[in-house]
Design brief:
With 324 residues, this protein is of the alpha/beta class. It is built from eleven helices and ten strands.
């Protein structure tokens, strides 16, 4: 299987060292991430990880430790003004602040040599019936996304959807709604990022979501993790839904995805060793990719899928997963 490498959530490395000291600054986190064997790239949160540093300086830190920059991820939670929305805030001045912040992030991304900006618009949504005018909310969202896409036509902008959190209902909460937004914006540089745990608790099947995203839009990002489908658990890859993860990787290979596989996991939530956790994720995915390669080496699985033969499909997948 072919991807351009593995990336990881930089804040995952924000846990205490064995001596009790905290790897806390963005440069500290980068240096710690660089100790993971097989990790190629990281994403930087904007503006969090560039606070006090310019983009060129952070690119230099990455280069010094042999890591590439996969892209930036916009974060609006650091400003209390955005609690009621970023692109959809009822006040025009706050919406303008969010859009201008995103444009600044795109400028910094270009300066740092990155290629993809991920938009997670978790603050854009609602919590109560009769809180918002749904048509107005949608129009504001589409207008905001269109404006930032037009600002940087040479960079990819990818929407990462999520059903809820921090809002009770995120406006872009599932694949269908996200694809509708992408169609209405109509920008060539716009696409979608699939987060495995988000897909699960949106009530979707990851393999199907990947198929539809690639069919109707551009599949620009993959966040691998796992969970129980009730919230954004951020567990280790394949720890709960191993078969669905293999099918997801199988689907990515069939549709020709060649981007980075990004680990959006939360070892910092319970104090796991982040270096060991990330290394385990890489080993897991490589083993699953090898299993997928064996499944694709013959036509047996493809023929079983054509017949919708679930028994044969399960037998074949379990054989490659559990063989020693």
């Amino acid at each position: 299987m072919s991807t351009t490498g593995f990336a990881a959530r930089l804040n995952a490395f924000r846990t205490p060292e064995l001596d009790g000291t905290l790897a806390g600054t963005p440069a500290d986190l980068v240096r710690r991430a660089a100790t993971v064997e097989g990790l190629n790239e990281v994403d930087l949160n904007f503006p969090d990880h560039l606070d006090g540093s310019d983009a060129t300086a952070m690119a230099g830190v990455l280069a010094d430790v042999g890591l590439g920059l996969n892209g930036f991820a916009m974060r609006y939670y650091s400003d209390p003004a955005f609690k009621l929305g970023a692109f959809t805030h009822p006040e025009e001045a706050i919406r303008r602040k969010a859009i201008d912040l995103t444009k600044a992030g795109l400028d910094a991304l270009a300066e740092a040599g990155g290629r993809t900006m991920t938009l997670w618009l978790g603050q854009d949504g609602f919590d109560y019936p009769f809180q918002v005018d749904y048509s107005r909310l949608w129009e504001l969202e589409i207008a905001g996304i269109a404006e930032v896409c037009a600002h940087a036509p040479d960079l990819d902008i990818s929407i990462e959807y999520k059903p809820n959190e921090p809002r009770a209902f995120c406006l872009l909460g599932d694949l269908g709604t996200t694809l509708l937004a992408i169609r209405e914006v109509g920008a060539k540089n716009l696409g979608v990022t699939l987060d495995f745990a988000h897909v699960l608790y949106a009530g979707e099947q990851p393999g199907l979501s990947a198929t539809l995203a690639a069919r109707a839009s551009r599949l620009l990002g993959i966040h691998l993790n796992d969970g129980y489908g009730k919230r954004d658990d951020g567990l280790m890859v394949g720890s709960v839904n191993a078969t669905a993860t293999v099918e997801f990787l199988y689907t990515l290979e069939r549709i020709g995805y060649r981007g980075v596989l990004y680990f959006d996991t939360f070892p910092d939530a319970t104090g796991l060793d982040p270096v060991a956790e990330c290394a385990h994720n890489i080993r897991t995915v490589k083993a699953m990719q090898a299993a997928v390669a064996r499944l694709m080496a013959t036509n047996v699985l493809a023929e079983a899928l054509e017949r919708q033969d679930a028994v044969t499909g399960q037998r074949l997948v379990q054989a490659v997963l559990w063989e020693r």
